[in-house]
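dumping this here so i dont lose it
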């Protein structure tokens, strides 16, 4: 998530939270004392706030130890905190209770790897905002900052290993989509009428809140809303649980095998193609940045044809109307990037531009999708 003229090989310093880590460690230790059967007050240490995390919430990594009946207990944990009001949040609301329930439901219904859930805390007074705590899962994640298409372990991997990661990512998506009766299992996501219509309206509402209502209208995004409406799919098929942010950047890998599936803040009910299109689009966003800087990137990774073929292999369902869903994915990501642009300007990490369409970093990609001229493979 870099500006168009920034060096993509450099990590961008992004404002996440202003909370003091030592204070947070003390507060966590006090809170844990009421959650575990400890002989004495738990000790919290090695607390860090990883810069590689996303901006929709604050992530804390910490170790905790205590004894129970004289026996050592504890381990390594991850706390995900809802964004503070002062953080210029990406999303209008951040529903940790729903995230926790969805993760628990997926873990119960599939063998997709989920990090072990520990606690959900809705009382904002404990750490300044609600949070959930999970056991930490060791492994590695393809980084967004700087993007994995420039450097890192995935960039240095073989084509065969990258294809294995593509295959394993699609298999995880297929497992999530195989959950039966998703509206009954996840009633908090259910709605009257078409889930895709609700999903689409939610994006409109998000765009209005994040940008338009403050006077930051993006003509390209508004044109895309109109195109999507005019080209609405005739048959959206059966609805599934949509992971929402389905991509390798939200998976912890052991080698090239998924060890934990993360980030369920965008979970919803909807057509399969929502999740099939998303990782393709997000990778091409990064790949196009690489080619713009005359770098090779990773053209063999998450190819559209590979993802569609693998998804049909795993599920028996051939993705359809993918041009529409890829354009919709580009719209959704465009809202994210435009809001992030505003956020970075707010914190002095970026500068404004007179052309509001430049708030969409993948502007050329989205324009080509609307024109029907984008070359996928």
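and the seq i came up w/
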């Amino acid at each position: 998530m870099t500006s168009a003229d920034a060096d993509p090989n450099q990590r961008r310093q992004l404002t996440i939270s202003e909370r003091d880590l030592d204070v947070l460690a003390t507060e966590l230790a006090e809170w844990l004392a009421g959650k575990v059967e400890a002989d004495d007050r738990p000790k919290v240490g090695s607390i860090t706030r990883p810069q590689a995390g996303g901006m929709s919430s604050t992530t804390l990594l910490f170790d905790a130890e205590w004894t129970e009946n004289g026996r050592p207990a504890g381990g390594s944990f991850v706390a995900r905190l809802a964004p503070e009001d002062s953080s210029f949040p990406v999303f209008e609301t951040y529903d940790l209770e729903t995230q926790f329930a969805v993760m628990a439901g997926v873990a119960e219904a599939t063998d997709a790897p989920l990090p072990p859930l520990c606690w959900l805390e809705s009382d904002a007074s404990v750490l300044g905002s609600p949070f959930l705590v999970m056991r930490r899962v060791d492994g590695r994640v393809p980084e967004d900052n700087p993007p994995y298409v420039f450097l890192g372990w995935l960039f240095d991997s073989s084509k065969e290993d990258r294809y294995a990661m593509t295959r394993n990512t699609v298999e995880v998506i297929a497992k999530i989509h195989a959950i039966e009766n998703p509206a009954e299992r996840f009633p908090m996501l259910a709605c009257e009428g078409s889930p895709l219509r609700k999903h689409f309206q939610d994006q409109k509402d998000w765009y209005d809140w994040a940008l338009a209502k403050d006077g930051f209208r993006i003509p390209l995004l508004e044109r895309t809303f109109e195109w999507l409406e005019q080209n609405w799919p005739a048959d959206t098929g059966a609805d599934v649980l949509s992971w929402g942010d389905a991509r390798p950047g939200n998976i912890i890998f052991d080698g090239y095998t998924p060890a934990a599936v993360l980030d369920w803040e965008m979970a919803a009910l909807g057509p399969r193609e929502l999740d099939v299109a998303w990782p393709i689009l997000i990778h091409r966003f990064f790949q196009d940045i690489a080619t713009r800087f005359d770098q090779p990137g990773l053209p063999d990774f998450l190819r559209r044809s590979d993802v569609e073929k693998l998804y049909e292999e795993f599920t028996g369902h051939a993705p359809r109307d993918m041009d529409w869903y890829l354009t919709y994915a580009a719209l959704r990501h465009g809202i994210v990037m435009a809001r992030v642009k505003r956020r970075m300007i707010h914190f002095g990490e970026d500068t404004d531009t007179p052309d509001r369409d430049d708030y969409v970093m993948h502007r050329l990609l989205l324009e080509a999708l609307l024109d029907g001229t984008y070359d996928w493979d």
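The chain is about 40% helix and 15% strand.
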